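Thread title: Can someone regenerate the structure for this chain?

I was given the following input by a collaborator and told the matching structure tokens would be attached. They weren't. Posting the sequence so someone can regenerate them.
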Amino acid sequence: MLKNDRFLKALLKQPVDKTPVWMMRQAGRYLPEYRETRKKAGGFMDLCMNKELACEVTMQPLERYELDAAILFSDILTIPDAMGLGLYFSTGEGPKFNKPIQNANDVERLAVPDPYDKLAYVMDAVSLIRQELNDRVPLIGFSGSPWTLATYMVEGGSTKEFGKVKGMMYDSPEIMHKLLDTLAKSVIQYLNAQIESGAQAVMVFDTWGGVLTPRDYKDFSLRYLQQIVDGINRTKDGEQIPVVLFSKGAGQWLDLMAETGCDALGVDWTVDLSQARKLVNDKVALQGNMDPCILYASDERVEAEVKNVLASYGKVGNGGHVFNLGHGIHQHIDPSRVKTFIDAVHDHSTQYHN
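Best answer:
Regenerated them for you:
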């Protein structure tokens, strides 16, 4: 029995005493203890693939802050790495692939990876983290979305122009759809394996959904998010497994996303929560959405912004709100500001719950 199930209840739009809070990238480089553990591991993927160290860094922010959820420490690009693309990280340059996807033959060669084989290290970490948490708070599993994974796979790494992936999408849509379908099937198996291993909620990160036109978002991103929502096992041991979708920069399509049947939608800082709530008509819970850069400001400004975000969502009523940043926390944030933020959410949110 969970000692703190506030997060899961909020995602399912059930009454809670105060607004739950966690942070994207809450186990990360802003924490000195994380940097020490990563140094000990030798590299980022070495850290991800060592279940003991992945568990250690997952737990680190929970030792500092009164967070309402833990999130598996891993990376969104584990699936393409398991497909044989050769993921590596260059200092200061982000992720890169040795074998990017360039043509139809490359796509044809891709196979859905067995999550209990080449991704077994992720499942081992999930199991160990659940054991270590000892029902303290729920554990979130996650994956990148098909469109976002395809972006990195075709570009060969990070990009600002999206020329290669959009070129393939526009010039050879049938190849892109084949790639996205393979990835959607992979994500479904991957997330279901995480649930089987102990994840109590799952989140799909569609980091680059917002770079698409409205038409292309529906065809090349939302279509495959729908496929994933339909394929995820939504119960385990009699408990519901909430599904959260997050498309960064796609606030104008929240109503379409809510129609997928997911339980909650992540919202970035470019959308007012009151408008987001109107768009989805309380059909799903909302997660978000403070600008991470607020955490560079004073404690007083951080607390004031927490109040602003809570007020923008308003009385919870028939809705559900999980407080989060609008995207991942930055590496140069002062950890003391995070405590101010977390404590302010709990201190000031009770008035919004009946």
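The first strand starts at residue 70 and ends at 71.
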